[in-house]
Structures are given as structure tokens and as C-alpha cells.
Amino acid sequence: MQNDDPEYSIARCQILVRDAQRTLETAGKWSLSDGLLDVLNRLPQLSSRFRRKDQDVKDLRQKLTVEHQSRLDTQQREQALLEKVKLQEDTIKKQLATLRALNNDLQAAKVDAKRQYEKGFKTGQEAEKNRQNQPDSDFEDLIRRQLVRGTEKFNAYDFAGALTLLKEAQNSILSLPAARRPLFDNTKLRYQMAISGAYVNDLAASERSLSSFVQATFSNASSREEMLNLAHAQHLLAQVYIGQDNVQDAQNTCKHSNEIRWQYLQSTDNRRYQSAALSARLVELQGQRGASLLREAIRDPAVRDVLKEAYSKLKPLQAGGNPRNEPYILSEPATELLPIWTMKTQAKQPVNNPPKADGKDKAKPQAPPTVPQAKLTEWLNALDLRSHDNEFLDRSLEQAIRSSDVQKVSQILSSSPPIRPVAPALHIAALANDLQTATLLLAHDPSLAKISCTAKSAAGKNLHGVLPMHLAVGAQHAQMIRLLHSHGADLLAVSDKKHKNSAPPLWLVSERWLSWTGKDKVEEVVGILELLRGLGWRKGDRINREGWRMGDLVVRNLESRKALKRGLLGYLDSIPQ
Asked: Which segments of the protein form a coiled coil according to its record (predicted)?
């Protein structure tokens, strides 16, 4: 049996060689050489090396076997992954196909739904249109009868009865479908209600009634009749302002009414005579001269005397109205006086000197509220008001003005040595709408109304030549504007000796100030513009360095405030240059 073990083969060779050596030696023929003997002696060592090499071969074979198996395993895993990926690809393809089918179904459903909606919407629109256009003859006839009866009573000066009927008609009109309401003349209805309310209600309610109509009509009046109705309402509103001891607003309102009547009426029209008589009385109430000259516009001496006597009754009152709601009968020649001036029981005490009760004076009318401290601080921080001439306002005086501490301001101004109220002392008071402090500062130094300072713009740039009037106009402080104007503040100054800036009216339509104050209603801004008109501003005046007018600035600045822009442009179109 053959043995393949290398060690066995070597040992076997050694034995055979030795046997052969002994045999030869015995025969005496020849002997093995030393070299061969050396080889034979080294056979164990060679055997050992051979065994190691053989083991290395076995190890290498085993390693190769392991690596081969590993490659096989890797290939199997890769194949499994490829199969899995292919399966997922197939799944995704199926899902995409499903989604495409669903999307096609969805689009088809959308098209069908849109078609159905449009069909239903058109049907509904037509039905609603037919419903709205379908007149309710009986109900609309009732409204017409209410309007006719209300107008009859209005023309007969039965304003209480007219107001009742007109209110009923207005409520009935509002209950109609929107498409049917324009069939009725709402402008005329509002006019008759405003005038009737003025004749029936007390002063406060009369002011609300007339002011609401005037503000709503400013932007919309276009025809001759509408403009004259506006002038009539303003004529009555001026009387209400007189009763409330607000002569300045009365003058402004009367002035606008006069402009309309002078434009649309003949010089002999009785309504122009009414305006002349009212203007003359306002001049007298302000202690000025020229009343007689204004009355000269009334050409008939007899009419002039009657109107002079009638309008001489206008004066500040405690309260007023026609609480008896009696029909108002006009005298001859016809006057447009409110009933409060013709009643026998007129209140005799002026508003600014009310009667005493229990030995104590009743409270006088309060000054307008000042700006809250938090808001004032926010505005002042943003404006960063500074004097032009490197002068600094005393800190204690500034703090007293900021906090509206009139007593403290008075003490500081009268201290020794005296402390000068340099800019921006009056600026702060004007911004705060603090009339008492502003009056005190102006009494101390009237020139403060004309002293400018530097402020920061919304973009952080320096604005030079800023006057107290700029701040009063921007913040829409009406009484502060009057106070500053009475002390020589210029409404149209676009520069001082050293610096240039826009005129105060521009600040009224500044986006920054409208956002700060929140006073962005048409009637609020128009009210200030009316005040400025009464103080000398005209819509044709150029109010910045570029020569822009108010209308130009309204268009540029109020693009984001469409309603205000539209209302102001309408108002500007309605007033003369």
C-alpha cells in the first residue's frame, strides 16, 4: 500500500540507502561518497523544511478556499440585492401607473366638477339676478310714498315729521336687494335727514348729523344741486360750532359754504345774503372789524337790517336744540337760522362762563387730551429732535414738558438765573398736544413758534428746518395748529435762513405720520385740511423744495391707502385754487 506522507518517504529512502551501503561494503566493491552521505544526513532537515512548505501550501489553499467562499457569498448577496431592487422597480412602476391613472381620473373629475359648478353658478346667478331685479312693487311703492311724504314735510319745515318718515324710508331702502337700492335717490335722502336732524336735535346731535353729511359729500358732490346742498349743511354746521364756542371751525366751515354759494348763485340770491350775514356775525364774535363791509353784499337795506338782527342772536351757548320738535316757521325775509336762535328759552350763559352750582364753578370745557407718555416717548425717540445752534434744552425743563407738568415748567422758566426754553421745547409740547405748556412757553418767548430744529426722517436721515407746526400738523392736533398759527407760525414755510424742508401741510399726508397716529380716515384728514385752508393754505400752494402741490403728494405718498387717496383727491377737486 502506497503511503504519500513525505516523512515516510524520506525515512524509507534513508533505510534503503543504508541497506545499500552495507551491502556494497560487504561486497567490497565501492562505498558512498561523502557528498552523498552529507545529503543523507541532511535529509531530516530537508524533510522538516519540506513539511513547513507543505503546511504553507495547505494554509494558502485554505485561505484561497475561504476567499473564494467569501466571493461566492458576496456574489450571492449582490444577486439577491439586484433581484430586490428589480422587484422594487417593478413595484414603483406599477404604483406610478396607478398614480397616473388616478391623476387622470382626478383631472377628469375636476373638469366635470368645474363644468357642473359653472352651470350651477350661472343658474344661481341668473336666479339671484332675477330675484333682485324682480321688483316688489308694493314695498317699493311704500318707500316712494314715505319719501314723498317726508319731502313734503321737509319743504313745509316740519323737520320732526320729515325726519321720522325719512328714517323709515332709509331703513326700508336698506332692506331691499342691493340691485334695487340705486332706484332711490340716497344723496337727496341723506341731505334731507341731515338738515332735519340739525333742526330737531340738540347741538351735539346736530353736529354729528351735519358733519357726517358734509364729510360724506366732500368727495362725491359734483352737480350744482349737490354742491348747494353741501353749502346749506355747512351753513348750519357753522351755527352749531358757534353754539359750541368753536368760532374758528365755524369760520372755516362758513368760508367754504360761501365759496360754493358765490360760485353757483346769483348775487341777489337770498342764500348768498344768509352767508354774508353769518360771515359778518363771525367777524363780530372774533372782535374784528369789517362786519359792516360784509353786510354790504346784501343789497336790499330792509333785508340787510332783518338779517343783521336775526344773526346777531348767534353766540356761544350751554346747550341748544328744539326739544319741542315743533315745525320750524321761517321769518321774512327767509332766514336759515337753527331753532336754537329763535326759541324764547335760549340758554343765556356762554359755554366759557357756565353758571355756578352749590357755590362752585362747573367744570370748563376740557382741553384736548395729550398724547400718552409711552407713545410720546416712542415718537420722540424716533424723531431725535435737536437744536440747530448747538444749544441744549435743560434736562429738567425737557422732562417737565414731556410729562406735561405745567407747574414745574412755570417754576423752571421763572427761576433765577432764568433758563431759556430753546428748541425743541415747543416742539415737544406741540407733539404732545399739550396746549397749556405750549401757551406757557409762547408767553415766555413768542419767537419759539418760528424756531426750527433737526429731526430724523423715517429713513434715518436728518431733516432740517422742522418747526413745531410740522409736528402739530403731522399729529393732526387741530387746536395746537390754531395756537401756533396765532403766534405767527407759517404754514407755508419751506425753508428758514439756513436750512430747507417741506412745508407743514405735506406732513399731513406722510405715510409715517398716518401710521403713527392712526388717523387715516378721509374725514379726519379733510378736517385738518379744512382747518389749514381757513388759516391760509391753498391747494395750489407749493409745499416742498421741488415745487409739488398737495394733490401731487397725495398721489405719490398714499398709493397704499386707496380709500384715503381717492377721498382726498375728490376733496381737492371740490375746492377752488
From this structure: 92-119
d(CA 149, CA 256): 32
Helix (H, G, I), strand (E, B) or coil at 314: coil
83-92 as b/e: b if 16+ CB within 10 A: eeeeeeeeee
Among 31-35, 168-172, 174-178, the minimum mean pLDDT is found in 31-35
In this structure, the strands spanning 360-361 and 356-357 are antiparallel
Domain ranges of the chain: 6-105, 185-351, 373-574
Say yes or no: do domains 185-351 and 373-574 share a fold. Answer: yes
Q: How would CATH label the architecture of 185-351?
A: Alpha Horseshoe (1.25)
Indicate the Cα dihedral angle 65, 70, 72, 74, nearest 10°: -170
Going by C-beta distance under 8 Å and a sequence separation of 6 or more, which residues neighbour residue 329? 157
Element (H, E) at 415: none
- The cell numbers describing 464, all together, are 432740517
Residue 34's pLDDT is 62
3 state SS for 446-503: HHHHHCCEEEECCCCCEEEEECHHHHHHHCCCHHHHHHHHHCCCCCCCCECCCCECCC
Percent pLDDT > 90 in the chain is 14
Query: pLDDT tens digit string along 87-137?
Result: 999 999 999 999 999 998 899 888 888 888 887 767 666 655 555 555 567
**Rounded-to-integer distance, Cα 136 and Cα 155, Å:** 28
| C-alpha cell, 418 | 432764568
Pull the grid cell for residue 127. 336666479
DSSP sequence for 351-396:
TTSPPEETTEEPPPPPPPPPPPHHHHHHHHHHH--EETTS----HH
- Spatial distance between the Cα atoms of 551 and 567, rounded to a whole number of angstroms: 11
pLDDT at 468: 93
Nearest-CA neighbor of 264 among 229, 311, 299?
229
The closest alpha carbon to 446, from 418, 386, 486, belongs to: 486
The CATH code belonging to domain 373-574 is 1.25.40.20
Quick check: 393 and 387 in contact, CB under 8 A?
yes
Burial label, 276 (beta-carbon count in 10 A; 0-12, 13-18, 19+): buried
The total number of residues written for the chain in this structure = 577
Distance between CA 227 and CA 271 in Å, rounded?
A: 13
**Exposure on the CB side of residue 229, measured as CA atoms within 13 A:** 23
pTM for the complete prediction?
A: 0.42
Q: What's the pLDDT at 234?
A: 92
Secondary structure of 270-284 in the HEC alphabet?
HHHHHHHHHHHHHHH
**Spacing of C-alpha 359 from chain mean position:** 49
**Which phi and psi angles does 524 have, rounded to 5°?**
-70, -50
As a whole number, mean pLDDT of residues 235-264 equals 89
φ/ψ (deg, to 5) at 9: -65, -40
